[in-house]
Design goal:
- 41% of the residues are buried.
- The protein has a seven-stranded mixed sheet with strand order 9-15-14-13-12-10-11, with helices on both faces. A five-stranded mixed sheet has the order 8-18-19-17-16.
- It is globular and about 105 Å long.
- β18 and β19 form a beta hairpin.
- By secondary structure, the protein is an alpha/beta fold.
- Helix content is 33%, strand content 12%.
- The two termini are 68 Å apart.
Length: 809
């Protein structure tokens, strides 16, 4: 029999659990009664909780716990008939802080049959063996009153000893599931009864005791005392073999079945000589008595104990500290369990998008979640609780009904890429420290430039921390191209330069102008048509006006996918004007750049190949986890010439490799995060066509949403025409506003509707949707589709939710 694989602790639903630490939990482990086991030949030992609940003191004489009738709980044997074997039990008492009590409910499928009157409840009672010893089913602790295994535990429940195992699952695997299920009882706060009484398998005692938050010496002494008494009992299983040749060790945390080659003796019949001989053989091998001859079992046993006892461990105990490998592994596995549970909840439409609290509530502390920083370290267990709380009070941006921002959704492949990136923890400035990532960046930039329509020999780019910085790069190189002396002499040697942008352009253009010393007054906004597109004639007019005023135009920023309306400026017309006036043309395609991957919709960016620089954010339409943005330039070498400082301690000219892959001198940063791997991994996973299918589906959802709204009387679209992108803008009119004539009074009332509905959405956590005013248009909702988890049913839900929340406003 091969050693059983150990699994992380589960909650009552079968999910990986992360219980809160027991900060004030003095615990006493007592063995009240030692019960010799009765195990027949061929019976396999398995670690199992029989049941867990706060119990009154049972009588000192024989008391039998009998399963009541039900599919998972077979009836007791008839009088005079020996029941099937079961594991004898010992009693564990624990005392917990009220907040972190682990009291459990008694399984409803157990009924108590007594041979003597029941005494008064006490915390010092003893559970004694049954006379006929009925079998306790593996699924005992997961049955409802009718005897049915409930919820996910129905799937995990094991069959009784007399029943056949489930089809498709071997008996050993089935019992693994049962053991995990039985030990995954729900934790609840204890207010009245501070003591917990658990009746557990004899084999589970040491692992439970090592889980208790005691000091190492105290725990070891108490366990040894208990185990020594067990060892002296006639027929004790401690340190002996059972008929299948499995050995149970006697040290804390090491009571695990273990296969021994060739060993065979009757359970409880080995005798003191054989027992002592076993110990001598292990000593000869220089193996600690609690260790298994199988190194994997040793590691797994130690790891399982660590998994449940991090309250006395600290960050200083993790790697690279000596012997910190197992603790590090267990801590990170617990973190991964927290993350996996959060991911599962993220994709569950029935879960809340957020558990909203006001800033002052977070600052004051919520249910022990304290944001204040301490001078002293906190335990790893507390850090796990803090990780859980951080996710609990945050926003699930991958939720199918999260429509709040242009970047939404959670791609699992991209998430894996981000985890690997954080693990590598390197810098993108040289090939020397990021050999794979710098080459990946070159491959991605080449691919993106080809999609735009530029030749590889003439184009280059760099990944930057967000679209705003990419737009800043575009304006920076535009200014350097026309005035290279700016790098050394500064703005005082330049004329009064101006740039032009659509009035629907992103606010980062003005931010970049302020940062670069150009000034926001020198950013001229060009009028747009009713759909939010820049009017080329207005651009020409503004350029001529600026020249007449003595200003010097140097750049035009066109928009491919505006933030609010999703508008695409006429790029060909703008490129023609830029060529006439010798101006740099930058295209902000942060939002709309992903549309280039769709053969059905890429025509909307026609003319982008004539641009001098392009901003493209894969973390928006392509769904790459934040952040992932690229600035692409058609002229190779311009980024380096504009930004390089040739730091000798980083960019030595005589390196052993091709230093062209040292990208640090192209950027305004020194340290640069690795944003390329998650995009590269997703591109490998989906392929270009996979991105195309994803983007086309967003466009179909936008069209569906538009058609549904158009048929409803209480919704009004901002634009009557079909949406050009995934942005759909609309108003909701409560019944009372439908009868107010159009005008100032109605606009004043309508202005308040979207904020009130949004506030209720946030408080209830059902859905998240953005709103804003724009020009002379009062507050309206903006729906955007960029979440791969969103379906038509979620769109229908949003409409119903808006009507439910707004009908009485």
């Amino acid at each position: 029999m091969s050693p059983r694989r150990k699994c992380p602790p589960l909650d009552t639903r079968g999910n990986a659990s992360t219980p809160r630490p027991c900060r004030r939990a003095p615990v006493t482990a007592l063995v009240s009664q030692h019960i010799p086991p009765i195990v027949t030949e061929g019976t396999t030992l398995r670690r199992m909780n029989v049941f867990s609940r706060p119990l009154p003191s049972p009588p000192r004489d024989h008391t039998t716990w009998v399963p009541s009738a039900g599919p998972e709980c077979p009836p007791p044997p008839t009088p005079g008939q020996a029941g099937p074997p079961h594991r004898d039990t010992v009693r564990i008492q624990t005392q917990c802080a009220p907040r972190h009590s682990a009291h459990r409910a008694r399984p409803a499928c157990l009924s108590r049959q007594k041979t003597t009157p029941r005494p008064k409840p006490s915390c010092s009672g003893t559970l004694t063996p049954a006379t006929h010893r009925p079998a306790l089913p593996h699924a005992l602790s997961c049955c409802d009153p009718g005897g049915r295994a409930t919820g996910r535990r129905r799937a995990a429940a094991c069959q009784d000893a007399h029943a056949e195992p489930r089809p498709g699952r071997p008996p050993a695997a089935t019992c693994q599931r049962a053991a995990r299920t039985a030990s995954a009882s729900r934790r609840r706060r204890c207010h009245s009864a501070p003591w917990e009484v658990r009746v557990v398998s004899l084999l589970e005692l040491p692992s439970l005791a090592t889980d208790l938050p005691l000091g190492t010496q105290e725990r070891s002494w108490r366990l040894e005392s208990c185990l020594q008494e067990m060892r002296d009992m006639p027929g004790s299983p401690i340190g002996t073999e059972h008929p299948g040749g499995e050995t149970v060790s006697s040290e804390p945390g090491c009571l695990r079945p273990e296969r021994r080659a060739g060993g065979y003796s009757a359970w409880g019949g080995t005798g003191e000589e054989e027992e002592e001989e076993d110990r001598k053989q292990m000593r000869k091998k220089s193996i600690h008595p609690c260790q298994s001859t199988d190194k994997d079992v040793i590691k797994e046993t130690h790891a399982e104990n660590l998994m449940t006892n991090l309250s006395n461990a600290y960050a200083s105990d993790l790697l690279p500290s000596k012997e910190g490998e197992d603790l590090t592994k267990c801590f990170l596995l617990r973190v991964v369990n927290i993350l996996l549970h959060y991911i599962e909840k993220t994709f569950d439409v029935k879960s809340k998008i957020l558990d909203f609290h006001h800033p002052h509530q977070l600052l004051e502390g919520l249910d022990g979640f304290d944001l204040e920083l301490s001078d002293h370290p906190e335990s790893l267990e507390q850090l796990l609780v803090d990780c859980t709380d951080t996710l609990k009070y945050g926003v699930k941006t991958g939720h199918p009904r999260y429509f709040n921002q242009l970047s939404s959704g959670l791609d699992v492949i991209g998430l894996a890429g981000e985890w690997l990136t954080a693990t590598a923890n390197t810098n993108m400035f040289t090939y020397e420290v990021a050999p794979v990532f710098t080459v990946m960046e070159a491959v991605l930039l080449k691919k993106m430039c080809e999609i735009i329509g530029w030749r590889e020999a003439e184009a280059e780019g760099i990944f930057s921390p967000g679209g705003s910085i990419s737009n800043l790069y575009g304006i920076l190189v535009a200014r350097y191209k026309q005035y290279p002396e700016i790098k050394a002499k500064g703005m005082t040697f330049l004329p009064r330069i101006v740039l032009f942008v659509s009035e629907q352009g992103h606010y980062s253009i003005k931010k970049a102008a302020a940062t670069l010393g150009i000034g926001t007054d020198n950013v001229i906004e060009v009028k747009c048509d009713e759909r939010g597109k820049m009017i080329p004639a207005e651009l020409e007019k503004n350029i001529l006006q600026a020249k007449r005023k003595g200003q010097t135009p140097f750049c035009v920023v066109a928009t491919a996918g505006s933030t609010v309306f999703g508008a695409f400026d006429p790029l060909h017309d703008i490129a023609d004007i830029c060529e006439i006036h010798k101006l740099w043309m930058h295209v902000d395609a942060a939002w709309g750049g992903g549309l280039l991957l769709s053969r059905n919709h890429s025509y909307k960016l026609s003319g982008i190949e004539r641009a001098d620089s392009v901003t493209w954010n894969p973390h928006k339409l392509m769904g790459v986890p934040l952040q992932c943005s690229a600035i692409l330039t058609r002229e190779k070498g311009l980024l380096g010439a504009c930004n390089q400082m040739q730091a000798e301690y980083l960019f030595q000219p005589d390196k052993v490799y091709n230093s062209n892959f040292d990208t640090g001198d192209k950027t305004i940063q020194c340290g640069r995060h690795v944003d390329v791997f998650k995009l590269w991994l997703m591109w490998k996973a989906k392929g270009t066509y996979g991105f195309e299918v994803q983007i086309d589906r967003y466009m179909e959802l936008a069209k569906y949403f538009y058609k549904v709204l158009k048929k409803k009387d209480n919704f009004k679209l901002v634009f009557d025409a079909e949406p050009e992108f995934t942005n759909v803008c609309f108003w909701y009119f409560p019944p009372r506003l439908k009868h107010i004539p159009k005008g100032f009074e109605r606009d004043q009332e309508l202005q308040k509707i979207a904020p009130k509905i949004k506030a209720q959405m946030i408080v209830e956590g059902t859905v998240m949707l953005s709103y804003q005013p724009c020009g002379d248009k009062v507050n309206f909702f903006r729906m955007v589709f960029s979440n791969p988890a969103t379906r038509q049913t979620d769109v229908d839900y949003l409409i119903d939710e808006i009507q439910r929340l707004g009908k009485d406003l």
